[in-house]
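Weekly puzzle thread! Below is a chain. First person to post its structure in token form gets bragging rights.
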Amino acid sequence: MVRHHDRASGLVDGTINFRDLGGYRTYFHARVRPGVLYRADALNHVTDAGLRELRRLGVESVVDFRTPLETSTDGPDRLPDGLRVTARPIGDTGMYATVNAAIGSKDPARQRAVLGDGRGAAIMRTLYRSFVTDPASAASFGRTLREAADRSETPLVFHCTSGKDRTGWMSYLLLRAVGVPHRTAMYDYLLSNEYRAEADAAVRARLESSGYMQDAELLKPIQDVRPEYLGAALEEVRREYGSVERYLREGLGIDGRTRTRLRQNLLAR
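Winning reply:
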């Protein structure tokens, strides 16, 4: 297993959670090729140096999973001229609006009512289950998988706001689709906690110092990735499809030919 956090953090200046999915071993003694697929947080703060790095990486296309509310609030991606960008919103079950409204209220009682006593983690489990149960989300994940199989679309960057939930599920599916074991794909998923730790702690400190929250630790379950969140999505997969293989095929429309093209495009011996 390649330990990505030894080399990929800060790959593009102005991002926190931008990393290359390359390097992981599959069941077939192959590796995911570096420089083909990148997962990221929002690209709205990319600096001039970051733009140069995106050009150097040869990125051909970007898929943005953020909702219109997220994009209008945080700003559009900042990208090199001519880069193909696809807005492919994946719903967040209202999580972004709900959490931001609770924070904006500056009301500790309301914030506890929304996020306290395990409710923050419950919001996240609901979000992850929707990745599987919502037909529009499934269509978006399936479409992105098919694009990853198309050499003309890669190198490809896909991202959401924090680069950890919708992006985390997409990354998990891509790795599993080309034969990376669950344990390794879970490792990649959980790396977001390491990449985001410093920035997320700074957000909590800023919310307390500015008077928006008395107890910003209430946000921790929303900021985290946790095995139980990924587990909620996988539980839905098992309940509805029986296995990840069948989910890829029947739930996301990834047929045998597409799986072959994915492996041809993404794997190297």
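Puzzle host: Confirmed. Bonus trivia for everyone else. The chain is about 55% helix and 10% strand.
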